Amino acid sequence: MHPVALGQSDLRVSPICLGTMTFGEQVDEAEAYRIMDRAVERGVDFFDTAEMYSVPAREATFGATEAIIGRWLKARPGMRARLTLASKVAGPSRGMPWIRAGAGMAAQDIVNSCEASLKRLQTEVIDLYQIHWPERHVPAFGAMYYDPKKESSATPIHEQLQVLGRLVKEGKIRHIGLSNETPYGVHEFVRLAEQHGLPRVATTQNPYCLINRSYENALDETCERLEVSLLAYSPLGFGLLSGKFDQFAPTEPGAPKEARIARYESVQKQRWGRPDALAAARRYNALARRHGMTPVQMALAFCYTKWQVASTIIGVTSVAQLDEDLDAWGTELAPELLAEIDQIRWEMRDPAV
């Protein structure tokens, strides 16, 4: 794997990023260490986390993932210098009052969250610090439509950029990014940064997979023209594109119970739990098998080879899963297969938006 550039920043990272949201919930600390060790051994030098992880989000595990990574780094002198470490400040609490006292995301909230993440990660600087979801009201996490009547923004984008700029000047973060953003949001962050000499966003971390290609509906053009890189998350559609639910739906007795979507009701109620999402995933999984591939190979190769994607974030619960995901690197999808993928999308659209 050759390093890829992130936006206009000086960050150069592996085109596969290790997502860590399972650490501290599905994955205990010892297994998390084994996964991180193996990822580095195989050339992954880009790790992504967030203050709100583990997932599903609970007060008892808030910050647990960062703390595990911090202890792993402390036990491996010299490892921190080899890695690009990304984390995120949570947006407005969305029903998670343990994140912060207020419901919004004020400038001081960003500072407090960053400093707490630095302590848990046991590092002096976060290479890429991202806003996990917008401070303003936007359709995300399964919501379909923008509704101006629900607007509750209290911290303008300019103010968010100012406080992030302060954190850059203080040496606490190197570069900034967004997550779960819209074309308007990306454009406004870049416009204001350039107008006022503030840090320019390098990335946006958005869902991108066979059952959710909404990024290709204008946001890809925005990011391409503004030189903002996509970090694609959920490339396996929360497990639906792994093939493990092709026989039994996540809530049916025969389904594998270790998967997050099977174990947690909160996940089942989101976009990945929609019957249409499972139906589309089964179509794609069957297509992969007809072309002599596993569903995992085809789904990951789709992300790994798309021009829109800078780095694909993979989340795993075991070293075996990690190896399977990394082994898919280098898989090529024939033009006729890509045409069949597009035909399924034409018929079923993006059911996991």
How is this structure best described in words?
By secondary structure, this protein is of the alpha/beta class. The chain has one domain (4-239, 306-332): NADP-dependent oxidoreductase domain (TIM Barrel). Helices cover 37% and strands 14% of the residues. The protein is built from twelve helices and ten strands. The chain has an eight-stranded parallel barrel with strand order 3-4-5-6-7-8-9-10, surrounded by six helices. The protein has a two-stranded antiparallel ribbon with strand order 1-2. A hairpin with a 6-residue loop joins strand 1 (4-5) and strand 2 (12-13). The protein is globular, with a radius of gyration of 19 Å. The mean pLDDT is 95.
Write a short abstract of this structure:
This protein is α/β, with parallel strands linked by helices and 353 residues long. 37% of the residues lie in helices and 14% in strands.
Topology:
Layout: E1 4-5, E2 12-13, E3 16-19, H1 29-41, E4 46-48, H2 64-74, E5 84-89, H3 107-121, E6 126-131, H4 157-169, E7 173-179, H5 183-196, E8 201-207, H6 219-226, E9 229-233, H7 260-263, H8 265-268, H9 275-290, H10 295-305, E10 309-315, H11 319-327, H12 335-348
Parallel strand pairs: 3-4, 3-10, 4-5, 5-6, 6-7, 7-8, 8-9, 9-10
Antiparallel strand pairs: 1-2
Helix pairs in contact: 2-3, 3-4, 5-6, 9-10, 9-12
Protein name: Aldo/keto reductase
Keywords: Oxidoreductase
Domain NADP-dependent oxidoreductase: 15-344
